[in-house]
């Protein structure tokens, strides 16, 4: 069985496939006609497959079957790729996450089998398990069941193209579970390596701290993402469902705002998406780089203000001022740290709370690693039955 978990971020798709972490830009592009293949040997095509994903997906789980570039290849092909709309949300209804998850699973299966046997099969059949998470701001049991059924109740056929070759992959899901974002991160903290807590230990003059320290604590989690920020309250090992909520805030909204300012600056002469803007910010040689950085600093500050207000409200109204630890993680915790950390630390000092700011090494992978722990427990439980 292919044991799979997927953290469907607005910018990045993070998956664990049989214990291996796989990351892709969470974009795709529907294509028509013949695919332009890059020259090279079959061995090279397989080695580069995860950066060159081209597939045809047939499934009743999506509105229309078709051929797609996925991830890195979609982001670097001509034209603007499709991405999740951070304003609309409703990830459980969108086709993009389904197409991308199936495509990455199929491509990884092809790559793995070729590396094991040294030749390309014509057909592969994969029984699989899958755990996913949707934002707490969107989560409802009915929505979770709907997304589960899209994978569980349909047959999925993915044709993976490698140069002039192709492999047909049939995926059948035996176990699918959908949880809310933020909840899996509890397990990533409880079973975290000691270096996850180095800064925390120094801040509070503690020694030999690991995840067990937090197992009997009341923890307010701020999972700052791209399109949403999730606020989860846990009492010991258990999340408190009525105290879990989310808002459409995050670094993605800051980027969208900065893009609009950049378009105004250049009077409409700019048409880029969030992924392309992020590349622009890191490319100091681009003529628009300085303006992009300037605008992002402004919009980033506004997002940080909104998230800080959410944390205050969560502590007072959702935890009844009982939280003992504030845990902050997610991709936005890296991008917004300069604007948020000092205020959060001061808030924690005033209210007698310990601040656990997850280091960059782990911050973006808390949900996917937590889901991997849950997946291991779930598959073992089902197998025993």
Describe the structure.
- Helix 7 packs antiparallel against helix 9 and helix 8 crosses helix 9.
- The two termini are 16 Å apart.
- 40% of the residues lie in helices and 26% in strands.
- The strands form two sheets. It has a ten-stranded mixed sheet with strand order 3-2-1-8-10-9-5-6-4-7, with helices on both faces.
- The longest helix has 30 residues.
- By secondary structure, the protein is an alpha+beta fold.
- It folds into two domains: 179 residues, ATPase, nucleotide binding domain (Nucleotidyltransferase, domain 5, 2-Layer Sandwich); 152 residues, Nucleotidyltransferase, domain 5.
Number of helices: 13
So, CATH architecture of the largest domain?
Answer: 2-Layer Sandwich
SSE string, helix = H, strand = E? EEEEHEEHEHEHEEHHEEEEHHHEHHEHH
Domain count: the total is 2
Q: What can be said about this structure in brief?
A:
The protein has 2 domains: about 1-180, ATPase, nucleotide binding domain (Nucleotidyltransferase, domain 5), CATH 3.30.420; about 185-250 and about 280-365, ATPase, nucleotide binding domain (Nucleotidyltransferase, domain 5, 2-Layer Sandwich), CATH 3.30.420.40.
Entry keywords:
single chain, 385 residues, alpha+beta, Nucleotidyltransferase, domain 5, ten-stranded mixed β-sheet, six-stranded mixed β-sheet
How is the secondary structure organized here?
Layout (H helix, E strand, L loop, with lengths): L1 E7 L3 E6 L2 E6 L1 E5 L10 H6 L6 E6 L6 E5 L1 H4 L6 E2 L11 H23 L5 E12 L6 H12 L3 E7 L2 E16 L2 H8 L7 H6 L14 E7 L4 E7 L2 E2 L5 E3 L3 H15 L8 H9 L6 H30 L6 E5 L1 H5 L1 H14 L3 E4 L2 H4 L2 H19 L1
Parallel strand pairs: 1-8, 8-10, 11-15, 15-16
Antiparallel strand pairs: 1-2, 2-3, 4-6, 4-7, 5-6, 5-9, 9-10, 11-12, 12-13, 12-14
Helix pairs in contact: 5-13, 7-9, 8-9, 9-11
């Amino acid at each position: 069985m292919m044991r799979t978990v997927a953290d469907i971020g607005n910018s990045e798709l993070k998956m664990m496939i049989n214990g291996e972490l796989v990351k892709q830009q969470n974009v795709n592009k529907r294509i028509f006609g013949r695919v332009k293949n890059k020259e090279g040997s079959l061995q090279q095509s397989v080695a580069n497959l995860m950066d060159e994903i081209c597939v045809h997906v047939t499934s009743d789980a999506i509105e229309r079957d078709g051929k797609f570039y996925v991830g890195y290849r979609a982001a670097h092909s001509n034209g603007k790729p499709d991405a999740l709309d951070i304003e609309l949300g409703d990830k459980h209804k969108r086709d993009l996450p389904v197409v991308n998850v199936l495509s990455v699973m199929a491509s990884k299966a092809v790559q793995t089998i070729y590396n094991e046997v040294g030749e390309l099969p014509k057909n592969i059949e994969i029984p699989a398990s899958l755990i996913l998470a949707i934002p707490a701001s969107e989560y409802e049991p009915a929505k979770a069941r709907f997304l589960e059924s899209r994978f569980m109740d349909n047959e999925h056929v993915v044709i993976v193209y490698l140069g002039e070759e192709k492999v047909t992959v049939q995926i059948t899901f035996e176990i699918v579970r959908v949880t809310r974002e933020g909840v899996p991160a509890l397990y990533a903290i409880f079973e975290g390596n000691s270096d996850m807590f180095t800064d925390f230990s120094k801040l509070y003059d503690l020694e030999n701290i690991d995840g067990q320290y937090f197992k009997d604590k009341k923890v307010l989690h701020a999972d700052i993402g791209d399109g949403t920020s999730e606020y989860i309250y846990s009492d010991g090992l258990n999340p408190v469902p009525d105290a879990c909520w989310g808002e459409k805030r995050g670094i993605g909204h800051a980027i969208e705002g900065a893009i609009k300012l950049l378009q105004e600056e250049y009077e409409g002469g700019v048409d880029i998406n969030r992924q392309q803007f992020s590349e622009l910010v890191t490319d100091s040689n681009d003529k628009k780089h300085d303006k992009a950085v300037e605008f992002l600093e402004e919009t980033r500050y506004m997002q940080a203000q909104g998230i800080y207000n959410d944390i205050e409200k969560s502590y007072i109204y959702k935890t009844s001022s009982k939280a003992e630890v504030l845990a902050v993680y997610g991709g936005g915790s890296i991008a917004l740290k300069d604007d948020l950390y000092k205020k959060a630390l001061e808030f924690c000092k005033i209210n007698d709370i310990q601040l656990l700011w997850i280091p960059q090494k782990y911050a973006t992978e808390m949900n996917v690693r937590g889901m991997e722990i849950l997946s291991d427990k779930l598959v073992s439980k089902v197998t025993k039955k």
